[in-house]
Amino acid sequence: MKIIVTSIFVQDQDKALAFYTKTLGFVKKHDVPVGEFRWITLVSPDDQDGTELLLEPNNNPAAKEYQQKIFAGGIPATMFGVANVREEYERLMEHGVKFTMAPTKMGEITLAVFDDTCGNLIQIMQK
User: Which superkingdom (predicted)?
Assistant: First the structure.
């Protein structure tokens, strides 16, 4: 068994799609209408057959509350691996991304946390 799709709740699918592709650099894999929303998945440009990230609308009250509470608690919704956290931090800062935690070394890893502008904190990590 392996993870093939994981999701993140977003307030606005179009805004999330733009941020995750144009700013972060993910590649759109699927964009299929599903009622009033869409099944939008993204993949890493380096692993286009790998795990997909679903941009899940937070229109369900439970989803919205969950998203708001983990954000308010400073808890990242997910984590992305990067080759160099400090370089990625600088690149994203140049694109206007707001960080809640600058690159911080913790033992064998370095972490940073940013606001995805769609209701989530996202952690990036370098081993």
Answer: Bacteria
Q: What are phi and psi of 3, to 5 degrees?
A: -75, 125
pLDDT value for 44 = 97
- Number of structural domains (the chain) is 1
Q: How far apart are CA 12 and CA 55, in angstroms?
A: 9
What are the tokens at 50? 């790998």
CA-closest candidate to residue 53, choices 41, 37, 38, 44: 41
Distance CA 122, CA 127 (A): 16
Domain membership of residue 31 as a residue range: 5-126
Q: What is the pLDDT of residues 47-70, one digit of tens each?
A: 999 999 999 999 999 999 999 999
Tell me the pTM: 0.94
Supply the CATH number for residue 47's domain: 3.10.180.10
Can you tell me which residue has the tokens 């179009």?
Answer: 14
